[in-house]
Amino acid sequence: MKIAVIGTGYVGLVTGTCFADSGNDVTCIDIDEKKIENLKQGIIPIYEPGLTELVQRNSAAGRLKFTTDTAAGVQPAEVVYLAVGTPQGKDGSANMSAMWSVVKAIAPYLQESAIVVTKSTVPVGTNAKIFGMLKELTGRECDVASNPEFLKEGAAIEDFMKPDRVVVGVRRPEVSDVLHQLYEPFLRTEKPFISMSPESAEMTKYVANAMLATKISFINEMANLCEKMGGDINDVRRGIGHDSRIGFAFLFPGVGYGGSCFPKDVRALTSMSLDHDCEPTLLRAVDEVNERQKSVFKQPILDHFDGDLKGKNIAVWGLAFKPRTDDIREAPALVLIDWLLEQGASIKVHDPEAMENVEAELGDKVAYCKFRMDAIEGADALVIMTEWKDYHSPDFAEMYQLMKSPVVFDGRNLYEPERMKRRGYKYYSIGRKAV
Ligand SMILES: NC(=O)c1ccc[n+]([C@@H]2O[C@H](COP(=O)([O-])OP(=O)(O)OC[C@H]3O[C@@H](n4cnc5c(N)ncnc54)[C@H](O)[C@@H]3O)[C@@H](O)[C@H]2O)c1
């Protein structure tokens, strides 16, 4: 099939590349000229495991092309995917300006039988609005489908190639059939292809993200309570997780969720609820608990240093909002670093992939260390903010020697408190007594 993908970010690039890998002819389009120039040379603008090899292989095979020329990309396409950003607007609702400008830009070049598909996460009703816009702009009723994306950054290729399910929202079964054909190579293990109305598909994406965010905020609130009352959230997790109605997934306590999706999608759904006079009590609480959780270490850090952080050397391991990505959008680490700087601390940071992005934001306010152990040399405390594998099994004896004082604030519960105590550390974690 001939496919155009508009917006070559995390989602668009992965979508286009995976469709090319299953034998389609794909043209990825973006307004960012530098990004497209780099992609033409096989330089990938983001860190996503496995993506570089896949882009290079499919480009070499002539199935994957990159351009800034909307007309050239859209004219031959049977299916046109829209994957531009839908960031949070000032009032919490989704900012749809990129989507609307793309719809206007593609309209003159669409083939009569082309199917336009939204891949971006878009408010319920967007499909109908695009249908109306295209009718006005082209004078005909174009097929517009919704196909929300559920991939996770850091495992995007795997998620796209082996999805738990594919959801499409369509008005005509024929459109569903075309999209089913497109996805068949990825559904060979009998995972479901679920067809529904566009409104239900749009809603499904928000509900999925809101559910996941709710689980995280729930376990974080329970963790904080557990710590105050002398329990251990890890034991509680084990105690509840074996209940098949509950399970273990997404119930890891930590320093809060971040990224480009959960925060903005919870807020966009809140905004949609308000627009329809439905009180978003739970959604608001999920967001509020999460914002608070990003600051969960402030008080323990202050208490540990008797309220004075001036001149203290703090090491931070992990900057990305989660492991296996360089994405720092709404990352909890940035909230903590801002506060530490306000308090007068000196900061050395390490992250396997996200340091360039942080440097673009923070410049020389913090020191960037290529190796994790360089960050902790002379440190009064180490704070762990992202659960990269690199941090799971460090040489604790070497760390002990390198640090000025052996103090660890572990925002991802990577280590066993009793073992840390035996190793001579003062150890703080989430939902467990400090030792
Ligand atoms: N990142 C994720 O993990 C993820 C997962 C599922 C769904 N989504 C959703 O997918 C959508 C895209 O997210 P993303 O993370 O890929 O965003 P992104 O910011 O990484 O990429 C968006 C791309 O669109 C391009 N763009 C903007 N305006 C354009 C225009 N007028 N014409 C052509 N290109 C244009 C930008 O230059 C950029 O390259 C969002 O709605 C997001 O909520 C994201």
TrEMBL record:
SUPFAM superfamilies: 6-phosphogluconate dehydrogenase C-terminal domain-like, NAD(P)-binding Rossmann-fold domains, UDP-glucose/GDP-mannose dehydrogenase C-terminal domain. NAD(+) binds at residues 30, 35, 86, 121, 153, 264, 329. Substrate binds at residues 150-153, 205, 250-254, 258, 322. The active site is at 261 (nucleophile). SMART domains: UDPG_MGDP_dh_C. Keywords: NAD, Oxidoreductase. Pathway: Nucleotide-sugar biosynthesis; UDP-alpha-D-glucuronate biosynthesis; UDP-alpha-D-glucuronate from UDP-alpha-D-glucose: step 1/1. One of its GO terms (molecular function) is NAD binding. Residues 315-417 form the UDP-glucose/GDP-mannose dehydrogenase C-terminal domain. It catalyses: UDP-alpha-D-glucose + 2 NAD(+) + H2O = UDP-alpha-D-glucuronate + 2 NADH + 3 H(+). It holds the Pfam family UDPG_MGDP_dh. It comes from the Bacteria. GO terms for biological process: polysaccharide biosynthetic process; UDP-glucuronate biosynthetic process. It is an enzyme of class 1 (oxidoreductase). Its EC number is 1.1.1.22. InterPro entries: 6-PGluconate_DH-like_C_sf, NAD(P)-bd_dom_sf, UDP-Glc/GDP-Man, UDP-Glc/GDP-Man_DH_C, UDP-Glc/GDP-Man_DH_C_sf, UDP-Glc/GDP-Man_DH_dimer, UDP-Glc/GDP-Man_DH_N, UDPglc_DH_bac. Catalyzes the conversion of UDP-glucose into UDP-glucuronate, one of the precursors of teichuronic acid. Belongs to the UDP-glucose/GDP-mannose dehydrogenase family. This is UDP-glucose 6-dehydrogenase. It comes from Aeoliella mucimassa. The lineage of its organism: Bacteria, Pseudomonadati, Planctomycetota, Planctomycetia, Pirellulales.
